[in-house]
Amino acid sequence: MNLKQNNMIKKIIYASICIFILSSCGSTKVLPTTGEVKKSSETVGVLVLNAKGYGTSQSEALDHAKEQAFTNLFFRGVSNTSYAKAMIGNEEESKKAHKRFFKEFFKNKGFNKFISNTDITKAYNKKTKSIECNISININSLRSNLEENGVISGFKF
Fold first, then answer.
1. How many other C-beta atoms lie within 10 A of the C-beta of residue 87?
2. Those residues with Cβ within 8 angstroms of residue 72's Cβ, 6 or more apart along the chain or in another chain
3. pTM beyond 0.90, yes or no
4. Where are the domains of the chain?
5. In whole angstroms, what is the distance from residue 48 CA to residue 57 CA?
6. Where are the alpha helices (DSSP H) in the chain?
7. For residues 142 and 144, what is the distance between their CA atoms, to the nearest angstrom?
8. Residue 37, pLDDT score
């Protein structure tokens, strides 16, 4: 075997390995965390947030919008509301310390217990794969639940 053939075999093996690795990486879908959440309205005990979500279907995009509303409320805060400062704070530390709570809350859609209403404000767009909606969150029961689970202390607010 000459040097040229040897290099060609190496390139083919390398390309095959790269294709295998890249094709196996695509099995997990991660939607972006966005700051596309803003106040719609706020009354005693209820915060209505307008959130944008992305997904390959309307239901997936709607769930993503709900997740984004809570993610921003918990870890970033929502400007022009009583929750301009994050309810929880450090996302990485909190998710590490309260793994079971956040798994139930986000992966198992436990957030739905605190949503009293969802109104779609911009229909699902197949081109951008996005949706916008107003999400009514029962803030009092959410805060109580966070306290009961030790995620926040009762004195934080």
1. 21
2. 35, 37, 49, 51, 78
3. no
4. 34-148
5. 23
6. 3-25, 58-75, 91-97, 99-102, 139-148
7. 5
8. 76
